Amino acid sequence: MKRKQLAPHIHADQPAAERYLYVLVALLPAFLGAVFYYGIRVLILAAVSMFCFFMSDYLISEKLYPELPFHVDYSSLVSGLLLVLMVPASTSAWAVAMAALFGSVLVKQAFGGAGANVFNPALGARAFLEFACPAQMVAAEKPFQGLWNLTTLWTGKPGTITPASSEGVRFVDIFSGRLVGMAGVTSIVLLLLGFLILLERRLIRFEAPLAYFATLVVGYVPFFWDHLNFHEFFYWVSVGGILLIGIFALNDCTTTPMDPKGRIVFGFGAGLLTLILYRFGNSSYAMIFPVLMMNMTTPIFDRYLRPRVFSKASWFREVEK
Asked: Which of 270, 281, 219, 231 is nearest to 247 (CA)?
């Protein structure tokens, strides 16, 4: 006789759709800042990405899981918007559409849909672009190039104009996001505003983000001992997508461990891998790949660090009998 696995107790009174809707609202300040700096093209890219994510999720769910009614939980819209914030504003629309389809089909729906995916769909889609369109991923756009700057909307922009250091960059630019970088990751103020929205709705689990940020702060000194510069550190936090990853990717309930101890190790591992990639590897990989690599460990944490079932010494041994 096949025994059912014990389900975790639910302590939140919010349905999944409401939680994802608030995450979408929390992303709006960074998104509106990207539109302000880079114009209508960011709005078009977001519409393309969110449409492709949503329609792909809907069509695949209808075909592969007809016994389960499709519920609009806004997870596809969150993934689509998050993807656009992590790419340069000069990225072509077809590249964003291709990445959104990859994230929906192979990263999310192939594992069973929302709540069953191993990897974060938006980060998986962004990782796909690193290999499929590497030239476009380093072709950062300067802010304020015109509200209707659509010249590279379909072709993308090869090459790079990203400065190598923070020399000449003011703190006001670092905190406001008026920098050459990804579309929606550079503004510390706008991302912190999104954090406050999540905090007010009690959608923040602090263990992974705190471990992540603490590892980066403490590890910055030994990893960059030969050229310590805290102005450079804040610049790195701004253009490197550190806050976006820490606030949103490390609070994904599906791809981060359920147990607080597991989330602490998860955040520490992501921070350490980020430092290693920035110091010794390809710095363009340091925003997304550490989290994706730690996503692979989440099932292990959930198996061995899950809270003990009442009166049972080891929950998984009882379940597997």
From this structure: 270
CA distance 39 to 149: 7
pLDDT tens digits, one per residue of 173-187: 888 888 888 999 999
As a whole number, mean pLDDT of residues 102-126 equals 90
Cβ pair 167, 147 in contact under 8 A = no
For the four alpha carbons of 300, 302, 304 and 305, in that order, the dihedral sign comes to: positive
The three-class DSSP label of residue 142 is coil
Beta bridge partners of 141: 181
Write down the pLDDT at residue 320: 47
Q: Which residues contact 276 (CB under 8 A, 6 or more apart)?
A: 223
Spatial contact of 248 and 23, defined as CB atoms under 8 Å apart: yes
Write down the mean pLDDT value for the chain.
85
pLDDT of 163 reads 47
Q: What are phi and psi of 184, to 5 degrees?
A: -130, 25
Q: Residue 209 is which amino acid? A: P
Residue 140 has pLDDT above 90, yes or no: no
| In contact, 226 and 260? CB cutoff 8 Å | no
Directed axis angle between helix 260-280 and helix 207-223, to 10°?
Answer: 30
What average pLDDT score do residues 14-43 get? 90
Q: What share of the chain is helix, strand, coil (3-state, %, to 5)?
A: 60, 0, 40
Q: Is the pTM of this model over 0.90?
A: no
Question: What residue ranges define each of the domains in the chain, with the CATH number in brackets?
Answer: 16-320 (1.10.3430)
Contacts of 157 (CB under 8 A, 6+ apart): 88, 90, 91, 136, 139, 141
> Nearest-CA neighbor of 209 among 259, 249, 158?
249
